[in-house]
Amino acid sequence: MNENKLEVQDLRVSFATSTGLVEAVRGVSFTLGREKLAIVGESGSGKSTVGRALLKLHPASARIAARTLRFGDTDLLQADERAMRAIRGRRMSMIMQDPKYSLNPVMRIGEQIGEALRAHQALTRAEVRERVLAMLAAVRIREPARVMDLYPHQVSGGMGQRVMIAMMLIPEPEVVIADEPTSALDVSVRSQVLTVLDELVDARGLGLLFISHDLHLVRHFCDRVIVMYAGRVVETLAAADLDRAEHPYTRGLLAALPSMTARRAVLPVLQRDPLWLSN
Q1: Mapping DSSP to helix (H, G, I), strand (E, B) and coil, where does residue 191 land?
Q2: Superfamily for domain range 6-258
Q3: Rounded CA separation 122/267 (Å)
Q4: SS3 of 74, please?
Q5: How far is CA 70 from the centre of its chain?
Q6: Which residues contact 64 (CB under 8 A, 6 or more apart)?
Q7: SS3 of 36, please?
Q8: Which of 35, 112, 171, 269 sits between 20 and 30 A of 203, alpha carbons compared?
Q9: DSSP 3-state of 80
């Protein structure tokens, strides 16, 4: 049974500027169950804005509206800051795309992961240490006891990303939002991180919202794909059916992907239609 963990209907996110409101997300709707759901699109299409809106991480200038914005039994539109603090991390986590900017450089890795656990559960120091060691082992970090005492600058990019995954998953959330979690990694390390994330999602029955611009990656990693253009959803389909996408924007993104087997003198340029903004 694929019960819905998230239900989003007609989500709109606007930002107040000196020249008026700028609508960054316009009428986005989707559900998320026990699955890996990708949101893809160009930079500026509104992918990350959707993810941050779910956790109310936008500044005060943001205006969030929706017909429905429900997480389990919680109406996120009506949830105040106290209610959101109980949700963030504990029930819904967000993995950022670059550990260099997300990990505290003056705190040891074990302290940071343990802090994420202590914020939501009353545990002894020994219990926290045991859980942190187990979580580091779960994300395939060798010698977890040694790594616990390191600072973020002392680990590689791939290990730092696995530390981020450990920090977000140790409170055992129901939903994880991953905002381009492998964009700063090389291909081999990216594969390792995705394998770890895939195994943890399957083992814990999580709902994963995977934000990416990499169509090749989501085709093989995710179950469903939402394609966004200029703040709107233009197409939703199974990841395995990406090659059979019908919307011209999705077709254009696929056509622009470089190929290792078919040489082309010039990559196709996406021809945009003004009607995509309204239809």
Answers
A1: helix
A2: P-loop containing nucleotide triphosphate hydrolases (3.40.50.300)
A3: 56
A4: strand
A5: 18
A6: 11, 12, 13, 53, 56, 58, 77
A7: strand
A8: 112
A9: coil
Amino acid at 9: Q
Beta strands at 175-179 and 6-17: parallel, antiparallel or unpaired: unpaired
State residue 234's pLDDT score: 95
pLDDT digits (tens, 9 = 90+) for 123-176: 889 999 999 999 999 888 899 999 999 999 999 888 888 898 889 889 889 999
Q: CA angle at residue 103 from 101 to 107, to 5 degrees?
A: 135
Q: Under 8 Å CB-to-CB from 192, ≥6 apart: which residues?
A: 140, 158
What tokens were used for 270?
């996406």
What is the DSSP code (8-state) at residue 267? P
pLDDT of res. 129: 94
266: left (phi over 0), alpha (psi -120 to 50) or beta: beta
Q: What is the pLDDT, as a whole number, of residue 279?
A: 67
Which residues, 6+ apart, have CB-to-CB distance to 154 below 8 Å?
A: none
Q: Which residue has the tokens 């995710």?
A: 222
One-letter amino acid of 50: V
Tokens of 179: 């905002």
Q: Which two tokens stand for residue 50?
A: 């959707």
Q: Where are the domains of the chain?
A: 6-258
**In whole angstroms, how large is the CA radius of gyration of the chain?**
20
Q: Nearest-CA neighbor of 76 among 224, 179, 175, 184? A: 175
Burial 206-241 (b: 16+ CB within 10 A, else e): bbbbbbbbbbebbbebbbbbbbbbbbbbbbebebee
